[in-house]
Design the sequence.
């Protein structure tokens, strides 16, 4: 069995930011990723997707993004940036490596098993898969007629593969609104909303909203602080590209309240109306799946990861890229390098103590 100091699971922005710091420290590690290429988790997302943050706030530590700093990179540009980042710092990414289980032996080492790689014994594991893995699908989805094409947002692509007829987008977060706008020129679109969303202007006094959040420190307000808790409750996103519901309605998108269920092939809404869709896109959000970590005390009673700024109570286990891990920036590219630095600092101190 091969022995490593650290295994990093996931070669997205969080895994690569962590990997660069581990490489700088001279540790023996590997980064496992299920994709064929670094950045594939971004390449497969829907057409037209851009990052929330401008390029100036979308680079990882040690390598800024090229291009107009105030512009927004699209998914393919960012995927290529991640691939270039891994190449520049010669990070040991192993592709097509699917981790199936993480256990612990009697000596306290983590045993990482799966397909596409030999089983590894590691002193530490960094989970960098993020919390946006499994799309949330309502319980009534199973009642949809078999001929209705239903899929999560990441499988929408450009929508050209969908059958003709009305498209129902369930969920009006940023992805749901983007997909509704993308699909509208070619078909009838119905957008089912959820909880009220707070949209902020993209620019204030000529400056990006993210510039203001950065210089005021709001984006880095600790999660458990008064400012952090207030931001988390509202969790606004920029109204970039005129994505207010009134703007969407003006483009011919039918805005409906929460979808409540299916009856006779019709999806019903909270106002009593209904529609018969030809296709449905789930844009409600995502949930984490930590079932591969077969170690006690990782999750609390609600199946939520136990951690303090990404440091698990299970010694040697770490998380990077969780939303609100340390602050609002944690779930964005702009925050993962700082979070990775906290994790790697703790990991190195533990490593040195164990090898004195």
Sequence:
């Amino acid at each position: 069995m091969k022995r490593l100091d650290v295994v990093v699971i996931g070669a997205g922005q969080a895994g690569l930011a962590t990997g660069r710091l581990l490489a700088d420290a001279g540790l023996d590690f590997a980064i496992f990723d299920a994709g064929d290429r670094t950045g594939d988790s971004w390449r497969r997302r829907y057409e037209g997707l851009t990052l929330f943050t401008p390029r100036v706030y979308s680079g990882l530590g040690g390598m800024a993004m090229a291009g107009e700093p105030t512009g927004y990179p699209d998914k393919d540009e960012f995927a290529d940036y991640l691939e270039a980042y891994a190449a520049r710092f010669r990070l040991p990414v192993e592709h097509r490596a699917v981790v199936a289980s993480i256990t612990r032996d009697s000596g306290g080492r983590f045993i990482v098993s799966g397909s596409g790689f030999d089983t590894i014994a590691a002193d530490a594991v960094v989970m960098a898969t993020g919390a946006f893995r499994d799309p949330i699908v309502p319980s009534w989805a199973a009642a949809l007629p078999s001929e209705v094409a239903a899929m999560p947002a990441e499988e929408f692509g450009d929508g050209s593969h969908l059958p003709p007829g009305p498209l129902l987008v369930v969920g009006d977060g940023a992805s749901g609104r983007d997909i509704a706008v993308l699909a509208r020129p070619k078909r009838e679109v119905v957008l089912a909303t959820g909880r009220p969303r707070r949209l902020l202007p993209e620019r204030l006094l000529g400056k990006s909203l993210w510039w203001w959040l950065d210089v005021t420190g709001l984006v880095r307000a600790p999660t458990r602080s008064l400012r952090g808790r207030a931001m988390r409750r509202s969790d606004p996103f920029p109204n970039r590209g005129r994505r207010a519901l009134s703007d969407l309605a003006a483009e011919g998108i039918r805005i409906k309240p929460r979808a409540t269920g299916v009856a006779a092939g019709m999806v019903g809404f909270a106002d009593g109306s209904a529609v018969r869709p030809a296709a449905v896109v789930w844009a409600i959000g995502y949930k984490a799946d930590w079932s591969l970590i077969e170690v006690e005390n990782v999750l609390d009673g609600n199946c939520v990861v136990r951690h303090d700024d990404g440091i698990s109570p299970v010694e040697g286990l770490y998380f990077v890229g969780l939303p609100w891990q340390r602050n609002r920036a944690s779930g964005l590219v702009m925050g993962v390098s700082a979070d990775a630095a906290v994790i790697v600092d703790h990991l190195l101190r533990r490593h040195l103590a164990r090898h004195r």
